[in-house]
Amino acid sequence: MALTRLRLTDFRNHAEASLMPGPGFVVLSGENGAGKTNVLEAVSLLAPGRGLRRAPLAEIARQGGSGGFAVATRLGEAEIGTGTEPGAPERRLVRVNGATAAATSLAEWLTVLWLTPAMDRLFVEGAGERRRFLDRLTLALAPGHAHHSTRYEAAMRERNRLLGGDETPDPAWLTALEARLAEHGAAIEEARDETATALAARLAAQPEGVFARAGLTLEGWEGDAPALARALAESRRRDAAAGRTLVGPHRDDLVVTHLGKGQAAHLCSTGEQKALLLGLVLAHAELVAERTGRAPILLLDEVAAHLDPSRRAALFDRLDGRGQVWMTGTEPALFDAVPGEATRYRVAEGRIEPA
Fold it and tell me: Going by DSSP bridges, is the β-strand pair 112-115/99-100 parallel, antiparallel, or unpaired?
């Protein structure tokens, strides 16, 4: 799985950009603010979801541009594109081989995983960030997860609206919504649990080394669809008073521990947390390649800057031959130890040139 062409139009600070990346390492170097991370964000939008920044679509279009943006790529024989049109800045369009497609269908074509500096606080922030992180990991192994998540959120919004209204809601309609919530919620929980269990087993089996091993536990809702439907029905009065749904997989949390130290991740040092996160993402990428038969595209933003030379070399060796890996850094010298032929670009003020 590798992009062989990437074209950006009015994307962030890039008016027009065209890249022809190779199948292995793709290195983007340049000063802070040059637009390196913007390129990674563009690649991340070729997968379902809101990309690595989770930014509103209207913020992505270049200031002073047409009012919309476009990202287009070639993946094997497929032509994939996404973007917005002028006058409809929040309406995302997706096309596959020229035909309009749903954003969730992108999971059938490629898997994109990423690690950014903004994720460094994953273990100390609220459970919502860890749920979103786990859902991205799950989506790589179960493409249908996006469908269940979308349907679950829609049903929950409608139920909350009914419970929060001035009129007494129709019990039959509430029951129907709760049945829908239970169906999709059980599927979400099952997929998350399978992902966390498989990844935890893989991490536990790895030898101690440069990259810290994480222990993973999914905490929150447990039970099947009928049990969730009953719990939702019993919680109507409490949910109406709270103004939100208080039971279900939308309240799950991914609990992470440092296996080597036997310590909760949120109590570890900043350096240890970064090492845990890096080790977790690498192990997941390997698990995806093993389970699906195709290596995911990895986006590693400024990852080399936090590693000493020996750890950088160990990282590059582990990634070598494991698919297309996009990396950014301020100095080209950070990537001197990258093995084999890498595609290298210099990014400066929205311009991208071969290095």
Answer: unpaired
